[in-house]
Every structure is written in structure tokens, then in C-alpha cells.
Amino acid sequence: MTSFGGNKTNPNTLTRELMQRLVERTGVGPDVRPGGITIDSSVYSSTAPALVLDESPAGGIFRTTFGPAWYESLEAFPDSSLIVVTVNLGNDTIQFARDEIQAAIEHIGWKRIRAFELGNEPDHYPGGSRPPQWSSSDYTAQYLGWTAFLSRNLSLPSHIFQAGGFVDTWSTKDIIDEGVDTTGSVKLFAQHTYQYSTCDPARNTIATLPNLVNHQNITAYLSQWKLQVAAAKSVGKEFVVGEYNSVSCSGKENVTNTFGQALWLADTILFAGSMDISRMYLHQGATLVLQSSQQANTPGFSWYDLWYPVPTDRYGSARASPSFVAYLLIAETIGSSNQSHIALLPSISSHPQFAAYAVWDPATRASDVARLVLLNLATRIITSTEEEKEAIAVTVDLSPYVRENQHATMKRMTALGLDSTDSRTATWAGQSYENGTASGVEVIESLDEGKVTVQGSEGVLVFF
Predict the structure, then answer these.
(1) Which of 51, 57, 106, 273 has the smallest count of CB within 10 Å of its CB?
(2) pLDDT tens by residue, 276-298
(3) What is the pTM of this model?
(4) Taking Cα atoms as reference points, which of 47, 43, 110 lies closest to residue 82?
């Protein structure tokens, strides 16, 4: 966090610029959820410096101590960015959680706090911190006990906790059935998703670009969470993906650091939106030494990070990744109303890797599409021939969507190819964002007699 945010004296200007590009398009900054696995071995101390990491001889972090100066890192993010405050549940010591909540209230302030969350992925707690039979019902009982105490002790408002945060062993429906939402403390529910992994050789083998950038794979994977979304909605709560990325254990070189990751993000986020998932928190960070004894990655910033916040030997200069342009497409798709509706349109049988999402705004008539996203996930790589490119390009006639006297324009998300790792050639509307600001001349296209052609490994956003 201190690398991505910096501090009051030296804020991370790259982070600040990239976040401002999103604010310009939506009116607000993105939510931030600091923490992850290290929060469950963390201690807040009012006398500590920003961050102290205690490492084992093997290089694993077994304790993280943070002080008031740590919160300065959040100042690199927009004032409108809300914070999900995750606190230590893993150490099974409620005083740690209490101190961290109190510190967040003091240093972040209620205006910016979205919710509090107890622990990170408690369904994956190691045997040393919980008994072997640790179950979702045990979590539910502890959640109810801790939230009751913390709410009384710190005079917390009702409906302030984000419950769950599981990976794959337990579910939102499990804890709802066990009574987690009976005391008025739950604001929303969260689970984590990682479609692929490099945590072990078997999963590393299938974490490939063709598997990742595949519309059927993306929709089939996310559809597994429909039951959990429905469970949350049944008790009047939002469901969010509290942490996600494409390949767990910090991504994969030449897969998640490519433009292909941008296409995966665009299709993943838009399909999740069509499923009524409210928000998705994209994991940023670095490889954890002891996360898996079989993982493929070595220490360093993750291969899937949306941007590399500081210069490193592995990645060179601080810069945005090729995938950052996906968030510009998403931001302009969502817009600033905070009330847009999205739907995945029926597929084209002859082009199974082509996806179309329609967006309606509250200010438009119910029958009028405000924006249309067209994603062509068919593989186009840097060395594809002109014949290969032509074979996978898709031309769509949008004349039926264009009303009389209406002018439709479009912006294009593209790169040299799916496998490109060069941020300078990954563009949104003709501009790249390697240094956080737009480089190049913005290109806003018009429809060609109502038609638009989308090349393989490319995305287009049409504005009506």
C-alpha cells in the first residue's frame, strides 16, 4: 500500500493520475480495499511508523505492524473513493480488530468508509489459527459475537459490516442460512474469485491466454456465483466480488501482463454487472513468498497489476500496464448516473467469441440503448497475417439502434495484438496511458452507414 499510495510528502503521482482518469469519466473515485491475507496477522500501533514487516527466516511475513502514517497512502486516491476496512480476524484476538476499526474511524473518517470486514478469506485459515473442523457455522457464530461486541464498544451504526469474503469453500448462502443476517450488522456480502491460478503446476498448465480470453470460459466461471448473488438479494443486500483477478498467486508472465488481460477484464466486469454484482475489487500487490510451496512466481509485483507503482528491476519504470485501458472502457460504459442498467445481448452463433452488452441510462427511454459495448475475443496476435485478421473480424449493423436525427460515435480499445506487453501500444480512443495521462490524439469514430467492424482482440464502445 505504501508503494501504490506513497505518503503525504511524496504521494505516488502515477496512482493519482490514473485514478483521476477514472474520476473524469464517472464522477467518483473507485473503492479501495486495503489488506488481503496480511491483514490477518496485522497489529495497529499509534506509536509505530507507517509499516513494519516482520519476516521469518524463509522470507514470509508473519506480522505486519502499521501506524498513523500508513493512512497517508490513501491520500493518493480521490477523496470520493470509499474504503472497505478489513481488520484482523485471523489471530482470533478481538482487541486487534477493535484497535484497527477505531484507527480507521480516526484517520479515514466516516465519510470515506464503505464498510468494515472481519478477516480475509476465513475459509482458508491455516490449521494453526483455527481447529481442523473450522466451518462456516463457526465463522457465523464468531462474526455474530464479534460484531455485537464491536458495535457496542465503538458505537458503530447498524448495517456497517461486509460479511463473508470467502474464496471457494463456504458461501454467502451458507452463512445466511446459518443466521449471519439476524442482528442488523450486515451491509453487504462478498466473495473472492480467481478464474485461473499459478499456485501449483496442474493449474499453472491451463493458465494460458487462449483459455483466459474466452467468452464462454468467462461466463461459465462467473455464472457459478449466481446462486450467491440471489441469496444476498433475497435478504435485501448487495453482493460484491471483494477481491478478484485472472490468475491467483500473482498472475503469469506473458499472460496477465498482456493486452489480453484488458479483454478479460472488460468481459468479466461487464458480465458480472449483468448478473447484478454491484462492485468488483481488482487485486493489486505482490507475490507472497509462503502463499504456496508450489507457486510459479518469485517475489516482486504481481504480473496482473493494473499498474506498477514504482520502478523495479523486473518491470523497469513505474507505468500503467496494457490492461489499464480496460478500466477506461468500463468507466465510460458505466457513466456517471450510478443507475445504469446493463444486459448481455444474445450471441452470434457464427462468432462465439463475440460479446455485446447494452447499457440503458435512467434519463433515456426504456427502449433506447444509451451505449453498446462490442467485444471480439477471437485471438489476434502480433504476428497474425492480414488473412487471419480478416477471418476473425466481425462487422455489425447497428442501424436499428440509431434513432432518426441521432449521431452515433464510438471509441476503440485496441493493441498490436492479444499478446502485446507494451503499454504504449495499448490504446483507448487512440490514446495510451503509460504515464497516467493521455498520450496521442483522441480518435472518436463515426459509424460507417450504421455499421461497425471490430477486429479480433479488440473492444468498441458505441455512444447513441
Answers:
(1) 57
(2) 999 999 999 988 766 677 887 78
(3) 0.96
(4) 110
